[in-house]
Known about the structure:
Radius of gyration: 32 Å
CATH architecture of the largest domain: Orthogonal Bundle
Structural class: alpha+beta
Number of domains: 3
Shape: elongated
Strand content: 5-15%
Helix content: 40-55%
Order of helices and strands: EEEHHHHHHHHHEEEEEHHHHHHH
CATH class of the largest domain: Mainly Alpha
Amino acid sequence: MASVKKTTISWKVTDRETGAVEVRTAERYKARFRDDDGKEHAKLFRLKRDADEWLRKNTASLVRGDFVAPANAKTLVREYAADWEKVQIGEAWRRNVDNALRLHVLPVIGSLPIGKVQRSHIAGLVKALEEKGLAASTISNHYTVVRTMFDAAIEDRVIPATPCRKIKLPRASEEAVIPTVQEIEKVRAALDERWRAVVTVLAGSGLRIGELLGLRVADVNFLKRSIRVERQRTQANAITPTKGKRSRTVQVGQVMLDALAAHLKAYPAGEESLFVDELGQPLTYRRWKTLLTDATTAAGASLTSHSFRHYAASALISHGASVKAVQEFLGHADAATTLRVYAHLFPGDEERIRTALDEALAPLADSTRTAEARG
């Protein structure tokens, strides 16, 4: 039963100098109610109207079904995140959740009580991710994890509302930035000789870095000059099927194959990995990221592993490959994805229109020249 009752409270005050103890009393208004679980919630107020207002808000929340016990809101973000992460489903999603929370989210807001997280905290988190130099798409992925977690907290009655409201995310540019061959060579030269073939294979095959790290010797057909792509190595160093579980065969050139053959002669592959480290262990995503970061810094180039994939795509397009051919080469789910990223590289329609019209009107041009000659 919800109620507001006048009550008398007392407390002791000790005089610091004399040690005398005085008992003081005061009248207060005690508002109380029980939630759906039967737990009593109570609070003292000086004024009756404040007690009535507090009781009204909380009982209204009970009726709406969005009441949040004050104790729940005191749960630290990292504590709730740990429990929430355990029940996430899907290997790829779990990897995203773990990466976002562990590396980017919890170091910023993990020590806050979840009920104290405000919109400004989330906006600050997004700004911190931008300052780290993360891509707009990566920031969007991390924000999706945060938003989903706070939505779950509402359903669990840990918070009454989400702080993820009207958060402005950085806009991603769909068009790929294509590196020059000079930039690629500088980065390649900045790597230790053991790792230079990785750059050549990436730029010559258009593989995603996870796909390359998942390659085995058996996946490379030197005679048919092709690579079979059907698995990938994740950031968690696990082997999984390729993105969307779509396997494909990639045609490659002799230059890339020669570089790979020379690499394997100097640094034999492992049983489960084409590229291995100094201890014979598979090259991991984390190790490669460190190697590439050091090399790009030394070379003064802003390249990522995906930059080499863009370079391979641009080479195909510049030599007349169709959208469909580029799509299949890169392993995109559909041609629309290819066009969103590389449309600016395909030849424009303007010159094609002019050429087509000139060819169609060629007989008229001949007639005009003949008439002018007679005149």
